[in-house]
Each structure stands twice: as structure tokens, then as C-alpha cells.
Write a structure and sequence with these properties.
heterodimer; A: 208 residues; alpha+beta; 3-stranded antiparallel beta sheet; 13 strands; 22% strand; globular; B: alpha+beta; 2 helices; 4 strands
Chain lengths: 208, 78
């Protein structure tokens, strides 16, 4: 089960909230003078990305639920179950069969040597739910697909100040819509931990 | 003078059991073992104090490999 049937009172990592605004500041490039734009959006839903123990002190980290990519449906392994994107997979499962066949024997060997690991490290899929509005996925040369699946992008995380978020037990209860099960929350925790624990190639060379 | 005696007592202990701290103990990781060795201040080997299994079985290199990912982002852009 992806979502908790009976939502626990405490606000948890991965919970889905509504009613929180998304503010992002945009600059052309870093400058000493003041020249910037601020975009304010009201996403339908957003996800708590503060770890459970760090929720409180009037600050919360959020990421909006966004539409999934139509390219996912080019890969039959993903098309069969989009939640597989959240989990570790074999290299030949991470791309469409025609892409895999296009790799050279050396490239296939290199990729196979990596074994079962994550792909699309920035993304975490949220399973369809009756609460979510349905939207069409445009498909080239095929009929559009309608879906209620959404996702979050770890790159798209922002901080929000809200004086009513005091601690996990003291927050605006009416703003919480859905809660992940313990297992799903663990999957989110492992994938975001992997996202932050990647080591850049140049640092790997230094380690060798 | 009093302070000097206190320092001597603090670091060297009392009676004949007191031992001068003219050595250092370092922990050295070798394969899956952690070895505590005693060295002189100028790094001359004196003794092996303890050998134990390193419970963190993954080496740093293994942990880096562990955190790798399939490089497929270019196939999922929209």
C-alpha cells in the first residue's frame, strides 16, 4: 500500500499538504546590485521534505507535486508500474528496450557491471489517488494517456516559514491530505539519501 | 611548584603503577580489521594493543560505488 489508510496525527516526512505557497526567486546571474524577480505560485499539493525529526520551529521544506514525464511510458518496465522509478533496478530495466539495444557491447557491459541501483535519482513518483486531478500525457503517434500519477523533483525543494508549524504534533491539521505508509516513506528516505550521497567524479578520482 | 605536582599526578598516576605517556595509540584500518597500535611520539612502532573486526564492512570506495546510479536522464526529458 502506498498511502496510509488511517492517517496518524503527527506530520511526517513525505506527507502531502495543500494550501502552501511556492515562492522562488530568479536572477539572471549573481550580482552585487539588486536585480531579481520573485515568482509566487500556489501548487495544488506539495510534499513535506523535512525529515520527521526536523519538522517544527516554524520552518518546513516542501516540494510541489508535478506532472510526470511522458517519456516514462516509452519504457515498458516503467509503464507497467510507475512506482518502479522509486526503487533500485537493473540497467536493462532503466531504459526502453530500443535504447538498450542501441548501446555498444562495451557500454552494455559497463552498465551491467553497476548492478541493481537507482535511476532518475532526482525523482520520486506519487501513486495515483482519487484526490488528485487527472491530466493528459501527450504521446507522439499514440493516443494521449490520462493519469493521476504525480512526482516530486528533489531539485525543486524550497523552504517555507509558517508560524503554525510548531512541531510534528502541532501544525495546521486541515492542510494535510495524505500520508505515506511506513514502507513508502522508507523508500522516499532511501532515494533522497542516495540523491545527496552521490560523490562527483572528480572527488572519486581523488579518493583512488 | 604545587601546580607542577598536580600535573605530574594527573598524567602519571601514583606509585609504581603510573606509566609515562611517552607514546601514542592510533587505530589503523586493514581490510575488515581495526588494529590499535602503540607508537613512540616519533612514530616508531612499539606494540599491537588490540585487533577487532571493523563493523562498518563497506570501505569508503564501496560506499561510493553503492551510491552510484544509472545514467539515463537524457532518455527522460519531457
Amino acid at each position: 500500500m502506498f498511502y496510509q489508510k488511517e492517517i496518524k496525527k503527527e506530520l511526517r516526512f513525505g506527507d502531502i499538504l495543500k494550501g502552501y505557497i511556492l515562492v522562488s526567486s530568479n536572477i539572471e546571474e549573481p550580482k552585487l546590485n539588486i536585480d531579481f524577480k520573485i515568482n509566487v505560485k500556489v501548487p495544488d499539493y506539495c510534499v513535506v521534505l523535512s525529515p520527521c525529526c526536523s519538522i517544527g520551529d516554524k520552518i518546513i521544506s516542501l516540494s510541489p507535486l508535478i506532472h510526470i514525464f511522458s517519456d516514462f511510458f516509452n519504457n515498458p518496465y516503467f509503464k507497467e508500474d510507475l512506482i518502479r522509478i522509486n526503487r533500485k533496478m537493473l540497467p536493462e530495466q532503466s531504459v526502453a528496450p530500443r535504447v538498450w539495444e542501441g548501446f555498444s557491447p562495451e557500454e552494455k557491459k559497463r552498465r551491467k557491471s553497476l548492478g541493481k541501483i537507482y535511476a532518475l535519482v532526482d525523482l520520486f513518483i506519487y501513486k495515483e489517488n482519487e484526490l488528485f486531478p487527472e491530466y493528459p500525457i501527450p504521446r507522439m503517434h499514440e493516443e494521449n494517456i490520462k493519469t493521476k500519477y504525480y512526482m516530486i523533483d528533489f531539485k525543486n525543494t524550497y523552504k517555507l516559514n509558517c508560524k503554525k508549524i510548531v512541531n510534528p504534533k502541532d501544525f495546521p491539521l486541515e492542510s494535510r491530505c495524505l500520508q505515506l505508509t511506513k514502507d513508502t516513506r522508507s523508500e522516499l528516505r532511501f532515494k533522497i539519501a542516495n540523491y545527496y550521497s552521490r560523490v562527483p567524479k572528480e572527488d572519486k578520482i581523488l579518493e583512488d | 611548584m604545587y601546580k607542577k605536582d598536580y600535573e605530574k599526578f594527573k598524567y602519571e598516576g601514583t606509585g609504581s603503577q603510573g606509566e609515562l605517556t611517552d607514546y601514542k595509540i592510533i587505530t589503523y584500518s586493514f581490510d575488515k580489521y581495526q588494529i590499535k597500535i602503540k607508537l613512540k611520539p616519533n612514530n616508531i612502532f612499539l606494540d599491537v594493543i588490540e585487533i577487532k573486526i571493523n563493523k562498518e564492512f563497506l570501505s569508503h570506495k564501496q560506499m561510493i560505488t553503492h551510491a552510484d546510479s544509472h545514467d539515463v536522464e537524457e532518455f527522460y526529458r519531457k
